[in-house]
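Standup notes, structure subgroup. Blocker cleared on the iron/sulfur cluster input:
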Amino acid sequence: MQKILRIKTNTKAVLFEEVKTEYAMLGGRGLIAKILNDEVDPKCDPTGPENKLIVCGGLLNGTMLPCTGRLSVGGKSPLTGGIKEANAGGTAGQMLGKLDIKAIIFENKPADNKWSILKIDQDKAELLPADKYVGMGNYALSAELRKDFGDKIGIVSVGVAGERGYRNSTLQVNDMEGNPVRAAARGGLGSVLGSKGIKAIVLDVTGAANVEYADKEKFVAANKKFIAAVKAHPVTGGMFPNLGTAGLVNMINGLGALPTNNFSDGRWDKAENISGEKLAEMQSTRGGKNGHRCMPGCVVCCSNVIHDEKGNYVTSSLEFETIALAGSNIGIDSLDVIAKFDRLCDDFGIDTIETGGTLGVCMEAGKMQFGDGEAALKLLQEMIEGTDFGNILGQGAEVTGKYLGVKRIPTVKGQTLAGYDPRGLKGIGVTYATSPMGGDHTAGNPLGVPTVDPYKKEGQVELSTQMQVFMATCDSLGTCMMILNAPLGEPENLGYFLEIMSGKFDGEWDPDKLFGIGVQTIALEKAFNKGAGFTAKDDKLPSFMYTEVLPSTGTVIDFTEEDMAMAIPF
Ligand code: SF4
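Run returned:
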């Protein structure tokens, strides 16, 4: 029987609760939205005692469906001031499912200002003193926790950035090799867990039972067909295992939407140097690996492991978004510098997208030259050391940009845009502007839809709405978007997936019921944001994008406030 684990950090009480009936068919992002609406004042201080940090898996968590161990975390975001769900791969999501825990809710603040770790195993959950772990970066922390509790544990942790309350801070989840490299990165949620005095969650599934199915035979049969379709698909069976998401660099550059020099162009003559193809060439001479999986059972394997020139491990996984924001966006064409940047961000516990955007506005302000990798790593070091300017950088691109007097700040609702300039892919512009998540590509990315012209506004509001519902559904199921995005576009595969849902939950499933999960999730999120004070006037892109022509495409943003108001009308 699934349960909710509630941690009252003020009294150190650890309580198991029954799952309310109305929560039974909610998971991941949808469950987070419901709990936040039920329990949190949307006007609260994000790092104050009234906010809550929720950690949970999705509805399909722990099942045999591959790539279904995304771990969702959520709360009111210190970065956007609105609702935020961020999710990560790695090992912890599946473990939470195996432990039959539907959600962990952290509330209040420790009265004694002491740090704890939450240790959960099959028989119990307890808060343990974390004094010896405080001040550790995520890599050292992961090694120490594995030494103390065994190398089979799942770990969710905050780095020093989360301890310090930086608004760009993450929660890091360990991968199958124990490295803390999978990040629930966006929205600064690491600082919310940090505000609760929690340094890490440690999960041990020894002896845990497998999840239940309404009709296991049906589930297994449909699952087999769906996996075969995923493996046969050119994106999930070809590009991702061979090049990882880095394979998108050349594609997005070709489209003219690759953020370049603080979003001042969308095509870069050095993009080839940071492409997926270049990365694969490096892997072949140095070791490292493409086709790596971040969680057991993944059949797509979009992750990679990066080595330096001497063949030593540096980081995993170097993703397109990091390459775009810490590469072309700041004029850096060295994959080695970007890999170092990624390693430092994972260890310190900060979002690579937000940090790349922050360095972009620093370069725009003349704090350093575009393309100066050494200077970029030095600024990152300032953040790590906590200098006065480093503390400003840790508040993200919008705060830093305003502090430096920069006019061109690429943020929506306080959050840096991801690796697609919306003037060159207008559908994602609608998503950035209207998603309750702020500027977030994972909220609904309409890339590669052949029926809608990416440079024109016609059809984009409808397309973005469709993709936002799709992603809110994925994020509520706990299934990696990599496995669903391309394959579910084919009716036969959607049919297999509906059978999977029926095998797990019983009853008949049709597309309306499946994607109704996403509609309900977004409606709850919008209700929370309304309570927090957001209005239609906040659903807009950075002002420079409405007037400044993107040289690569010759386009500007031409959506009106009325256009944006038509998106996600739930
Ligand atoms: S496809 Fe990539 S992100 Fe998704 S589960 Fe597999 S390795 Fe992880």
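Discussed briefly. Residues 67, 89, 293-295, 298, 300-303, 480, 482 surround iron/sulfur cluster (CB under 6 Å).
Next: hand off to the docking folks.
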